Automatic annotation (TrEMBL):
InterPro entries reported for this sequence: UCP026631, YdbS-like_PH
Domain YdbS-like PH: from-to ranges: 63-141, 414-483
Key word Magnesium present: no
Transmembrane helix keyword on record: yes
Transmembrane portions of the chain: 12-35, 41-63, 180-203, 237-261, 368-385, 391-409
Keywords linked to the UniProt accession: Membrane, Transmembrane, Transmembrane helix
Record's signal peptide: none
Protein name (record): Membrane-flanked domain-containing protein
Recorded superkingdom: Bacteria
Length: 519
């Protein structure tokens, strides 16, 4: 067993700067709150300095008490100042190793190393922070140990050794500045107003200034010589239009800024070990996804971007990606780009030969009755108590709900071929899922009282790291689907699945590439 090591000493500096940031608000709050009278300025400064000293000391002690050990079979992390904990994770249980560098650690040359175990519930292991070189070296070492390779053949186990070059491979997808800008326009957001509202709420509670007092703002405007009542109607309309235009600009600007911050430099490559995704302007993430651990594909879109032919592609895997079970591998792509990535992962997308099956008509009828009945019931008190004509509103909404259900039924469908299962749903922004039958863990047929009476069911496919449910399937079709999946699982020797995954994927890619070219 190797000796225990500490994380990078500069981790203490990150903690100290974090303590400074945390000390600003209480110090400012005391200074402007009136606590302590004329001496509140000194009290605020004292509280701020004390918070910084204590935070820095805690950061240093925490760094001293945190160690990690690279063993032959597992990696062990010991931490805790007063209460100590030691956690060991076998290499074979680590599904993914990712590097994440937020802005401040990135400026200091540091990165957080996250070991995804697929356990969920915050049970994944992380080290904050290592140098970027040490983080890359550790990732390679863990991957080599997990694949039962001898670390000495490819990676040195010495702390100061230089990492290998990054996996060289084919670039499958890249987001350039122009496409990022287009992407940002579709990410329209007014979240900045929520943040601004929160700040104003704090100002309102800490000072004597009534932020939400309309009369106060009107008086401030009128003290500048502007009489709001006497303004010409055209000026009022112009002011309203200008305000609306400014609101739209802020919404588009917020979407563009968020998109550039999250996906700047987005690059997806396919190397010998799998997929590697880089992205982020301020927080830079470096995620490696072994190809044979990709469980399913999710293709999504948006209400407007669907009309312009833009889609997103995510891999469902055992690991987590920012709290989600899906790794976004192409957030803003055309379908031909999505198809190329899917092929590289060993999947194929549905085509003209795919035999689609729709949900049960009884399921459709039940949804129409359920949604329309609620609105029709609301029409009864409207007819009794509301003015004439108001009753037409819930009746019209009931008819609209029936029409939407009827039309969306055309887009709720599923299909099964020799190796995969497809599901698609959504009227205005369709979402489709594709799963390999070989990687499903279980099949569950669920029926409520109404579904049992009407003869349809929801099929839940056991997918590690995600959910795959097909609703409204006729019972006979559900049982046939279960039999096909169970036959595939029963015919597979899962003890040899990982070892043969690379060759299987290669064969699948070659075969599909030939078929795709032929079509």
């Amino acid at each position: 067993m190797s000796e225990a090591r500490h994380t990078a000493p500069l981790s203490v500096a990150v903690g100290a700067i974090g303590a400074i940031r945390s000390a600003i608000f209480p110090a400012v709050a005391i200074i402007f709150s009136g606590i302590g009278g004329s001496g509140r300025f000194l009290i605020g400064i004292g509280v701020g300095v004390a918070s910084i000293v204590i935070g820095t000391l805690v950061s240093y002690i925490g760094w001293r008490r945190l160690t990690y050990t690279i063993g032959a079979q597992d990696i062990r992390v010991e931490s805790g100042i007063l209460s100590r904990s030691a956690r060991s994770v076998p290499y074979e249980r680590i599904q993914d190793v990712s590097l994440e560098a937020k802005l401040l650690p990135r400026l200091l040359g540091l990165a957080a190393v996250k070991f995804e175990t697929g356990a969920g519930g915050g049970e994944d292991l992380s080290l904050q922070y290592l140098t970027a070189a040490e983080g890359e070296r550790l990732r390679r070492l863990v991957r080599a140990r997990r694949d039962e390779e001898r670390a000495a053949d490819s990676v040195s186990d010495e702390p100061g050794s230089a990492p290998e070059d990054a996996d060289e491979g084919e670039v499958l997808f890249r987001l350039g500045p122009r496409r990022l800008l287009t992407f940002g326009l579709f990410e329209f957001s007014l979240a900045v107003f929520a943040v601004l509202g929160g700040i104003l709420q704090y100002v309102d509670s800490l000072t004597n200034f009534e932020v939400w007092d309309f009369d106060l703002w009107r008086d401030l405007v009128e003290t500048q010589g502007v009489d709001l009542v006497a303004l010409d109607a055209r000026l009022k309309v112009l002011g309203a239009v200008t305000g609306l235009f400014g609101l739209v600009l802020i919404g588009f600007g917020t979407g563009i800024v968020r998109t550039f911050a999250r996906d700047w430099g987005f690059t997806l490559t396919r190397g010998p070990r799998g997929f590697r995704r880089l992205r982020g302007l301020f927080t830079r993430t470096d995620v490696v996804m072994p190809a044979h651990r990709v469980q399913a594909l999710v293709i999504g879109t948006g209400l407007l971007r669907y009309r312009f032919g833009w889609h997103s592609l995510s891999f469902v895997s055992l690991a987590q990606d920012a709290g989600s079970a899906s790794h976004v591998v192409a957030p803003f792509a055309r379908m031909d780009e999505v198809a190329a990535i899917a092929t590289s992962a060993g999947f194929h997308l549905p085509d003209a030969r795919t035999h689609w099956q729709r949900a049960s008509r009884r399921y459709l009828a039940d949804r129409i009755i359920r949604d329309s009945a609620i609105l029709l019931l609301a029409a009864i008190p409207a007819a009794i108590f509301a003015p004439p004509g108001v009753v037409l509103i819930p009746i019209g909404l009931a008819v609209l709900a029936a029409g939407v259900n009827l039309y969306s039924w055309e887009f709720r469908r599923h299909a099964v071929d020799d190796s995969q299962i497809f599901s698609s749903h959504g009227l205005l922004s369709p979402t489709s899922q594709t799963a390999t039958r070989l990687k499903l863990h279980s099949v569950e047929i669920a029926q409520g009282p109404l579904a049992r009476w009407r003869g349809y069911a929801t099929v839940h496919l056991g997918l590690a790291g995600g959910e795959f449910a097909i609703r409204g399937v006729p019972l006979a079709e559900a049982r046939a689907l279960r039999a096909k999946v169970l036959a595939t699982i029963a015919a597979t020797d899962f003890s040899r699945l990982d070892q043969s995954a690379g060759q299987t994927l290669s064969d699948a890619q070659s075969g599909f590439s030939a078929n795709f070219a032929a079509t």
